[in-house]
Records
---
Amino acid sequence: MMDLSAAKTETSPPQAFDSVLIANRGEIALRVQRACRELGLKTIMICSEADRDADYLRSADTTICIGPASPGQSYLNKAAILLAMRLTGAGAVHPGYGFLSESAAFSEAVEEAGAVFIGPSADAIRTMGDKIAAKKAMMEAGVPCVPGPDSALPEDLAEVRKIAAEIGYPVIVKAAGGGGGRGMRVVRDEASLSDAVLVTREEARRAFGTPELYIEKFLQHPRHVEIQVLCDNHGGAVWVGLRDCSMQRRHQKIVEEGPAIGIPPDVAAFVGNRCVEACRQIGYRGVGTFEFLYEDGEFYFIEMNTRLQVEHPVTEMTSGVDLVRQQLLVALGQPLDITQADVVCNGHSIECRINAEDPYNFTPSPGLITGVQLPGGPGIRIDTHVTAGYRVPTHYDSLIAKLIVHAPTREQAIIRMRRALAEMQIDGVSTNLQLHREILDDPAFAEGGTDIHHLEHWLAARGAK
Ligand code: MV4
């Protein structure tokens, strides 16, 4: 068992804990549980009725079934999770990604119940959830943003026309409550502006409970490049390299890699340092990701994610920083034991998200996994909760494994990923393994630096064959 006395005396006394409730499922629940184990923290895993027989739950010290399969009644059910916390005496809650990971209300409820929410403050979550407030905070901190006002669009359409004309078409109208690709509309000319604003406003009102919109220059061929940050509760903050997540389909990332190639190190360092400065200004705590569009050598901030991300292993492989361990240490009140100078990224890492889905039409393929063959050898990491005999439930995301490789160069990482994908086999359900093999053989991917539209164009061409 870890000695928590240092954490207790160093910082605000109520922070220390010796058990963590993992409010998530699947591979990320297992990832968090592994980090807890290494720190001597007791683990409490919640599960739904659909997950209760899964093998990965047996690695926890305690498992508690909190409700039916439907996410609203289990992994999104705040009251049920708070009850599980109380019943098990959990000292902290790790939300993983998705589900309640970016719910300010949940983090507040956890803290009101006397436990530690492993993540940033409810205030920080709320600010970043409001995309206008987030942009305003970033502009104030000197983080480069997409051209456009850092305020809500006025109701008056003549005013809106003036703002759009100043930015220059094409523009994009986005909902303040949106994010991740939800609630946005591209506007190519003034003739389509007012309809686009009115429709997006109504959608926003319905979907996000607020009609607030903002407007930006629409960038036509950017890459999606993101910067990982890590902050403690004592003013310590570092950025931990860049990832390129441009290989996506319908806002679902398929392949991620780090570092983002072709970006001059001084430019990356400049933007990384602005992100760290922004974190200090807003009193950010824990891990976070600054999402940028990168076009013609320039960075443009779009959103900040206040959670641990699916693709965090890419950064762990290149930097050697265990981000989940760091999350736990920060939540325990410890100051970061690394400075920016200690963060040195080496080599290249690529992650393939292995989904149980049809490799051509992308529909989910739940069911019984009858066989699993995992690749191994140098530079291979697999984050998965599945084994032969595991049944992929119908109710959740289709991610069943993350295959991550690390090698000295990008070229070698690609060769290693091809080799690993050739070794890997999953039987019983359809997976996108074959899709990944084809992507890794795509000459444009091998060249690198493809934009956010490349994969969808490539898929359309593949489908036409
Ligand atoms: C944009 C954009 C172009 N210009 N904003 C989509 C998800 C959300 N995070 C923001 N998104 C975009 N915002 C401006 N001003 C293009 C996208 C976008 C995108 C961004 C990242 C990754 C994939 C994408 C796919 C389509 C559109």
---
Amino acid sequence: MDYFEIEGKNQLFGDVQISGAKNAVLPLMAASILNNDQLTISNTPNLSDSKTMANLLREMGSEVKFIDDKIHINSQSINMPYAPYKLVKTMRASFYVLGPLLSKFGEAKVSLPGGCAWGPRPVDFHIEGMKKLGAKIDLEDGYIIAKSNRLVGNKIVLPKISVGATGNILMASVLAKGDTEIHNAAAEPEIQQLCHFLNSMGAKISDIGTNTIKIQGVDSLNNIDSVSVIPDRIEAGTFLIAVAATGGEVKLNNVNPMHSETVISHLKKANINLTVHDDSIVVSSDGKDINACNMETNEYPGFPTDLQAQWMLLMSLASEDSNIKENIYFDRFNHVLELNRLGCNVRVEKESAFIKGKRNLVSADVMSTDIRASASLIIAALCAEGRSTISRIYHIDRGYDKIEEKLSKIGAKIVRKK
Ligand code: EPZ
């Protein structure tokens, strides 16, 4: 299995190109099920998760081709509304196909996703949403069997904000009879892009970007031939934090700073220099004099949970102690043990982490546990004296496009080894 070998203590200088957003391309690929002609999705990141979604669509009968940063999908020939466990278990986002399949075929058989690195991640909100739209839902041998002649619009109140459930209900309700309201809807930029994409196909979605989205059901959608993926705000935040921690000066290109306002304000509070332009951000830091800044994760536009592990590492280098409250997942702290092996000193109590500042990081052999935890381990190793290795980096390949190439280009000593 591949692993990274990293020589620490090298500051980072130069330019980095941020890729398209993983969490935008996956719902767009699922939404292609509603499109009955060739669709080209451009500015796509080269990730194993996109390949997994492509294999899932192919299993159902779609044609999917990857050419450079474009994904060409033709779902006209889909004839099998079935998402098998062998694929769904490797990527929770596969569950996004439930809504569009039910909408288009009136039926769907989708495996329940497995757990993930940090505990159960249920899909009860998705299922309740489909029931509220009139679908008959049965559970057989770990599969959701959904049936409906035609979905009927309804008022749906999510128990708490959910990105995936919002996406699934959106893709189910656009062709429903009548109007739907989704309360506690996600406002994440990736969901906003999904709404605009569906509207470009003739859907009638309003109040996009709020926590109450309205959908007027239509009888049919037209085809659309292209869409370009928004920049990945989580990859951008990961690189901002990496430079803040290691020191140096780097320009991030192809970003949308408006999607990272809370992260930018936290970094400025931590005494990191940021110059923000329309589609780029220059970050510079001496890697010292980092101010401690308590943080709590929240749904968009709050501080993203997907940058919690990276922020924890940065705060380990701050001049004072600090704490993090994880409000989205009740136990997303698997990275703490590995970070502590690299010299951090973090204590977890329920949904809070207490971080000692002024840590001198030391090289170690560590193991990735999930996509974003891997990113925090890489940054820690870049800051540690000596040579570290990070194993199980298939996690990082799920969510970051050639991260070691991008880091090497700006001066990091990181190599992928077999
Ligand atoms: C999306 O996951 C992202 N994944 C996650 O990014 C991200 O961490 C998460 O949103 C939160 O922002 C994709 O977009 C592919 P949720 P999702 O439904 O949709 C609970 C990454 O590294 N919940 O918003 O699965 C859930 O347990 C990944 O890129 C239910 O209880 O997240 C969590 O506590 C990791 N029942 C909260 O809601 C449900 O039916 C938010 O989850 C659904 C969710």
